[in-house]
Amino acid sequence: MVTPIIIDTDPGIDDAAAISLGLCHPEFDVKMITTVNGNVGIEKTTANALKLKHFFNSDVPVHRGASKPLLNEIVDAAPVHGESGMDGYDFPPIAQKDLASTHAVEAMKETILKSENPMTIIAIGPLTNIAILLSTYPEVTDYIKEIVLMGGSTGRGNVTPLAEFNIYCDPEAAQVVFNSGLPLTMIGLDLAREAIFTHDYVKSFKNQNETGQMLHDLFQHYRSEDFEYGVKIYDVFTILYLLQPQAFNVKEADVQIELAGHYTKGATVVDFESQYPNCTVVLSPVDKDYEDLFLNALSYCK
Protein backbone atom coordinates (compact mmCIF):
# COMPACT_ATOMS: atom_id res chain seq x y z
CA MET A 1 0.00 0.00 0.00
CA VAL A 2 1.29 3.45 -0.91
CA THR A 3 1.96 5.64 2.14
CA PRO A 4 0.69 9.24 2.01
CA ILE A 5 3.33 11.54 3.49
CA ILE A 6 4.10 15.15 4.23
CA ILE A 7 7.78 16.13 4.23
CA ASP A 8 8.50 18.99 6.64
CA THR A 9 12.02 20.16 5.93
CA ASP A 10 14.77 22.78 6.04
CA PRO A 11 16.90 21.89 2.97
CA GLY A 12 19.87 21.33 3.65
CA ILE A 13 22.02 18.83 1.80
CA ASP A 14 20.93 15.74 3.72
CA ASP A 15 17.34 16.94 3.37
CA ALA A 16 17.86 16.94 -0.39
CA ALA A 17 18.68 13.23 -0.29
CA ALA A 18 15.55 12.42 1.72
CA ILE A 19 13.31 14.58 -0.48
CA SER A 20 14.74 13.02 -3.66
CA LEU A 21 13.99 9.47 -2.55
CA GLY A 22 10.61 10.43 -1.12
CA LEU A 23 9.44 12.12 -4.32
CA CYS A 24 10.53 9.28 -6.57
CA HIS A 25 9.86 6.07 -4.67
CA PRO A 26 6.61 4.29 -5.65
CA GLU A 27 5.82 3.38 -2.04
CA PHE A 28 5.27 7.05 -1.15
CA ASP A 29 2.62 9.55 -2.15
CA VAL A 30 4.07 12.94 -1.18
CA LYS A 31 1.14 15.28 -0.58
CA MET A 32 3.26 18.37 0.04
CA ILE A 33 6.63 19.69 1.08
CA THR A 34 6.55 22.24 3.89
CA THR A 35 9.55 24.39 4.76
CA VAL A 36 10.84 25.68 8.05
CA ASN A 37 13.70 27.87 9.25
CA GLY A 38 16.67 25.71 10.22
CA ASN A 39 19.82 24.83 8.31
CA VAL A 40 19.50 28.24 6.68
CA GLY A 41 16.81 30.94 6.79
CA ILE A 42 13.26 30.32 5.58
CA GLU A 43 13.75 32.12 2.27
CA LYS A 44 16.66 29.84 1.40
CA THR A 45 15.10 26.61 2.67
CA THR A 46 12.00 27.39 0.63
CA ALA A 47 14.07 28.22 -2.45
CA ASN A 48 15.92 24.92 -2.03
CA ALA A 49 12.68 22.96 -1.83
CA LEU A 50 11.56 24.66 -5.03
CA LYS A 51 14.88 23.78 -6.69
CA LEU A 52 14.25 20.11 -5.94
CA LYS A 53 10.65 20.34 -7.10
CA HIS A 54 11.89 21.80 -10.39
CA PHE A 55 14.73 19.25 -10.70
CA PHE A 56 12.22 16.38 -10.54
CA ASN A 57 9.55 18.22 -12.55
CA SER A 58 7.25 17.46 -9.66
CA ASP A 59 3.71 18.72 -9.14
CA VAL A 60 3.96 18.29 -5.35
CA PRO A 61 3.12 21.67 -3.77
CA VAL A 62 5.72 23.51 -1.69
CA HIS A 63 4.38 25.58 1.23
CA ARG A 64 6.45 28.10 3.18
CA GLY A 65 6.28 27.66 6.95
CA ALA A 66 7.69 29.13 10.15
CA SER A 67 10.45 31.71 9.76
CA LYS A 68 11.68 31.49 13.35
CA PRO A 69 11.48 29.19 16.40
CA LEU A 70 8.69 29.44 18.96
CA LEU A 71 10.93 31.10 21.57
CA ASN A 72 14.56 30.35 20.80
CA GLU A 73 17.00 32.65 19.03
CA ILE A 74 17.60 31.75 15.38
CA VAL A 75 20.65 29.57 14.70
CA ASP A 76 21.75 28.06 11.40
CA ALA A 77 24.11 25.49 9.92
CA ALA A 78 25.46 27.38 6.90
CA PRO A 79 29.06 26.28 7.70
CA VAL A 80 27.89 22.67 7.23
CA HIS A 81 25.58 23.06 4.21
CA GLY A 82 27.06 26.12 2.51
CA GLU A 83 25.73 29.65 2.24
CA SER A 84 22.72 28.67 0.12
CA GLY A 85 22.01 25.56 2.18
CA MET A 86 22.53 23.34 -0.89
CA ASP A 87 25.93 24.33 -2.23
CA GLY A 88 27.67 22.08 -4.72
CA TYR A 89 25.20 21.65 -7.59
CA ASP A 90 24.12 24.18 -10.21
CA PHE A 91 20.32 24.01 -10.08
CA PRO A 92 18.31 25.86 -12.73
CA PRO A 93 16.61 29.11 -11.67
CA ILE A 94 13.36 28.68 -9.75
CA ALA A 95 10.04 30.38 -10.37
CA GLN A 96 8.27 31.88 -7.39
CA LYS A 97 4.96 30.98 -9.03
CA ASP A 98 5.78 27.39 -8.08
CA LEU A 99 5.41 28.30 -4.40
CA ALA A 100 1.93 27.59 -3.03
CA SER A 101 0.35 30.62 -1.37
CA THR A 102 -1.09 28.87 1.70
CA HIS A 103 1.02 28.83 4.86
CA ALA A 104 2.50 25.42 5.65
CA VAL A 105 0.53 24.91 8.87
CA GLU A 106 -2.82 25.72 7.24
CA ALA A 107 -1.99 23.53 4.24
CA MET A 108 -1.04 20.60 6.48
CA LYS A 109 -4.26 20.92 8.46
CA GLU A 110 -6.45 20.95 5.35
CA THR A 111 -4.63 18.05 3.70
CA ILE A 112 -4.55 15.88 6.82
CA LEU A 113 -8.23 16.34 7.58
CA LYS A 114 -9.23 15.58 3.98
CA SER A 115 -6.98 12.55 3.50
CA GLU A 116 -8.72 9.21 2.95
CA ASN A 117 -5.92 7.45 4.83
CA PRO A 118 -4.03 8.53 7.97
CA MET A 119 -1.03 10.69 7.11
CA THR A 120 2.61 10.05 7.95
CA ILE A 121 4.66 13.17 8.64
CA ILE A 122 8.38 13.01 7.89
CA ALA A 123 9.96 15.80 9.91
CA ILE A 124 13.59 16.45 8.96
CA GLY A 125 14.06 19.97 10.27
CA PRO A 126 13.24 21.84 13.48
CA LEU A 127 9.76 20.89 14.69
CA THR A 128 8.27 24.40 14.69
CA ASN A 129 5.62 23.81 12.01
CA ILE A 130 4.54 20.51 13.57
CA ALA A 131 4.25 22.01 17.05
CA ILE A 132 2.14 24.93 15.77
CA LEU A 133 -0.07 22.49 13.84
CA LEU A 134 -0.70 20.23 16.84
CA SER A 135 -1.26 23.15 19.22
CA THR A 136 -3.55 25.14 16.93
CA TYR A 137 -5.49 22.27 15.37
CA PRO A 138 -5.47 19.36 17.84
CA GLU A 139 -8.21 17.66 15.81
CA VAL A 140 -5.59 16.60 13.25
CA THR A 141 -4.11 14.06 15.67
CA ASP A 142 -6.89 11.59 14.85
CA TYR A 143 -5.79 11.64 11.21
CA ILE A 144 -2.02 11.31 11.66
CA LYS A 145 -0.66 7.78 11.49
CA GLU A 146 2.78 8.62 12.84
CA ILE A 147 5.59 11.15 12.85
CA VAL A 148 9.02 9.95 11.78
CA LEU A 149 11.56 12.61 12.70
CA MET A 150 15.25 13.20 12.38
CA GLY A 151 16.47 14.73 15.59
CA GLY A 152 17.95 14.11 18.97
CA SER A 153 20.53 11.73 20.34
CA THR A 154 20.82 9.19 23.14
CA GLY A 155 24.26 10.58 23.96
CA ARG A 156 26.43 13.32 22.53
CA GLY A 157 25.10 16.16 20.41
CA ASN A 158 26.46 17.87 17.31
CA VAL A 159 25.79 21.55 18.01
CA THR A 160 26.48 21.47 21.76
CA PRO A 161 27.96 18.58 23.74
CA LEU A 162 24.46 17.20 24.41
CA ALA A 163 22.10 18.77 21.84
CA GLU A 164 21.41 17.75 18.25
CA PHE A 165 20.83 20.59 15.78
CA ASN A 166 17.16 20.14 14.84
CA ILE A 167 16.08 19.89 18.48
CA TYR A 168 18.42 22.68 19.61
CA CYS A 169 16.96 25.06 17.00
CA ASP A 170 13.51 24.87 18.62
CA PRO A 171 13.48 22.81 21.83
CA GLU A 172 10.09 24.13 22.92
CA ALA A 173 8.54 22.90 19.68
CA ALA A 174 10.22 19.53 20.14
CA GLN A 175 8.78 19.22 23.63
CA VAL A 176 5.29 19.82 22.24
CA VAL A 177 5.73 17.10 19.60
CA PHE A 178 7.28 14.52 21.92
CA ASN A 179 4.37 14.94 24.33
CA SER A 180 1.64 14.96 21.69
CA GLY A 181 0.59 11.36 22.30
CA LEU A 182 1.13 10.54 18.62
CA PRO A 183 3.19 7.53 17.51
CA LEU A 184 6.73 8.88 17.11
CA THR A 185 9.90 7.43 15.69
CA MET A 186 13.10 9.29 16.58
CA ILE A 187 16.00 8.85 14.17
CA GLY A 188 18.82 10.71 15.83
CA LEU A 189 22.56 11.06 15.62
CA ASP A 190 23.09 7.52 16.87
CA LEU A 191 21.99 5.91 13.63
CA ALA A 192 23.93 8.10 11.20
CA ARG A 193 27.06 7.74 13.32
CA GLU A 194 26.75 3.97 12.93
CA ALA A 195 25.79 4.15 9.23
CA ILE A 196 28.30 6.49 7.63
CA PHE A 197 28.40 6.89 3.84
CA THR A 198 32.06 6.42 2.94
CA HIS A 199 33.53 8.55 0.19
CA ASP A 200 34.05 5.43 -1.95
CA TYR A 201 30.38 4.51 -1.49
CA VAL A 202 29.30 8.01 -2.54
CA LYS A 203 31.46 7.73 -5.67
CA SER A 204 29.80 4.41 -6.49
CA PHE A 205 26.44 6.01 -7.28
CA LYS A 206 27.75 9.15 -8.98
CA ASN A 207 26.92 7.84 -12.44
CA GLN A 208 23.84 5.79 -11.57
CA ASN A 209 21.46 8.50 -12.79
CA GLU A 210 20.99 12.29 -12.78
CA THR A 211 19.93 12.23 -9.14
CA GLY A 212 23.00 10.23 -8.17
CA GLN A 213 25.16 12.87 -9.86
CA MET A 214 23.32 15.70 -8.14
CA LEU A 215 23.56 14.11 -4.68
CA HIS A 216 27.20 13.18 -5.20
CA ASP A 217 28.01 16.81 -6.02
CA LEU A 218 26.09 18.08 -3.00
CA PHE A 219 27.76 15.60 -0.67
CA GLN A 220 31.19 16.91 -1.70
CA HIS A 221 30.21 20.25 -0.11
CA TYR A 222 28.58 18.77 3.00
CA ARG A 223 30.82 19.27 6.01
CA SER A 224 29.16 16.94 8.50
CA GLU A 225 31.20 15.72 11.45
CA ASP A 226 34.02 13.25 10.70
CA PHE A 227 34.02 14.30 7.02
CA GLU A 228 37.51 12.84 6.63
CA TYR A 229 35.96 9.36 7.01
CA GLY A 230 32.75 9.90 5.06
CA VAL A 231 29.46 11.79 5.19
CA LYS A 232 26.60 11.39 7.63
CA ILE A 233 23.36 11.75 5.71
CA TYR A 234 21.10 12.04 8.75
CA ASP A 235 17.77 12.89 7.14
CA VAL A 236 17.73 10.17 4.49
CA PHE A 237 17.29 7.52 7.18
CA THR A 238 13.70 8.65 7.75
CA ILE A 239 12.91 7.41 4.24
CA LEU A 240 15.03 4.27 4.50
CA TYR A 241 13.46 3.36 7.84
CA LEU A 242 9.93 3.66 6.45
CA LEU A 243 10.89 1.49 3.49
CA GLN A 244 12.31 -1.30 5.66
CA PRO A 245 12.00 -0.89 9.44
CA GLN A 246 13.38 -4.38 10.05
CA ALA A 247 16.76 -3.24 8.71
CA PHE A 248 17.31 -1.19 11.87
CA ASN A 249 17.72 -1.84 15.59
CA VAL A 250 15.13 0.04 17.66
CA LYS A 251 14.13 0.43 21.28
CA GLU A 252 11.17 2.04 23.03
CA ALA A 253 11.87 4.99 25.32
CA ASP A 254 10.45 8.05 26.99
CA VAL A 255 12.09 11.13 25.47
CA GLN A 256 11.85 14.58 27.01
CA ILE A 257 13.56 17.80 25.94
CA GLU A 258 15.75 19.85 28.28
CA LEU A 259 14.49 23.42 28.08
CA ALA A 260 16.19 25.26 30.92
CA GLY A 261 19.73 23.92 31.35
CA HIS A 262 22.50 26.45 30.79
CA TYR A 263 24.77 23.78 29.30
CA THR A 264 22.16 21.23 28.28
CA LYS A 265 19.34 23.15 26.56
CA GLY A 266 18.00 21.18 23.61
CA ALA A 267 19.27 17.83 24.88
CA THR A 268 17.03 14.81 24.34
CA VAL A 269 16.75 13.00 27.67
CA VAL A 270 16.15 9.36 26.70
CA ASP A 271 14.85 6.94 29.33
CA PHE A 272 14.89 3.36 28.07
CA GLU A 273 13.68 2.09 31.46
CA SER A 274 10.47 4.12 31.50
CA GLN A 275 7.19 2.26 31.92
CA TYR A 276 5.58 4.92 29.73
CA PRO A 277 7.56 5.23 26.49
CA ASN A 278 6.47 7.94 24.06
CA CYS A 279 8.52 7.00 21.01
CA THR A 280 10.55 4.43 19.16
CA VAL A 281 14.26 5.27 19.06
CA VAL A 282 16.21 3.99 16.06
CA LEU A 283 19.71 3.15 17.26
CA SER A 284 21.70 1.42 14.52
CA PRO A 285 21.49 -0.43 11.22
CA VAL A 286 21.40 -4.17 10.85
CA ASP A 287 24.68 -5.00 9.08
CA LYS A 288 25.12 -2.94 5.88
CA ASP A 289 21.53 -3.25 4.67
CA TYR A 290 21.14 0.54 4.63
CA GLU A 291 23.59 0.82 1.71
CA ASP A 292 21.54 -1.53 -0.46
CA LEU A 293 18.34 0.21 0.64
CA PHE A 294 19.71 3.58 -0.45
CA LEU A 295 20.91 2.35 -3.84
CA ASN A 296 17.62 0.60 -4.51
CA ALA A 297 15.63 3.72 -3.64
CA LEU A 298 17.96 5.86 -5.75
CA SER A 299 17.28 3.62 -8.74
CA TYR A 300 13.69 4.96 -8.88
CA CYS A 301 14.95 8.50 -9.37
CA LYS A 302 15.54 10.11 -12.73
UniProtKB/TrEMBL annotation:
Keywords for this entry?
Glycosidase, Hydrolase
Q: Which CDD domains match?
A: nuc_hydro_IU_UC_XIUA (cd02651)
Per the record, what is one GO cellular component?
cytosol
Q: Name one GO molecular function term.
A: purine nucleosidase activity
| Biological processes, Gene Ontology terms | purine nucleoside catabolic process
Alphabetized InterPro entries for the sequence: Inosine/uridine_hydrolase_dom, IUNH, Ribo_hydro-like
Q: Which organism is it from?
A: Staphylococcus capitis
Question: Which protein, by its recorded name, is this?
Answer: Ribonucleoside hydrolase RihC
This protein's record includes keyword Hydrolase: yes
Iron-sulfur keyword on record: no
Q: Name all Inosine/uridine-preferring nucleoside hydrolase domain ranges.
A: 5-288
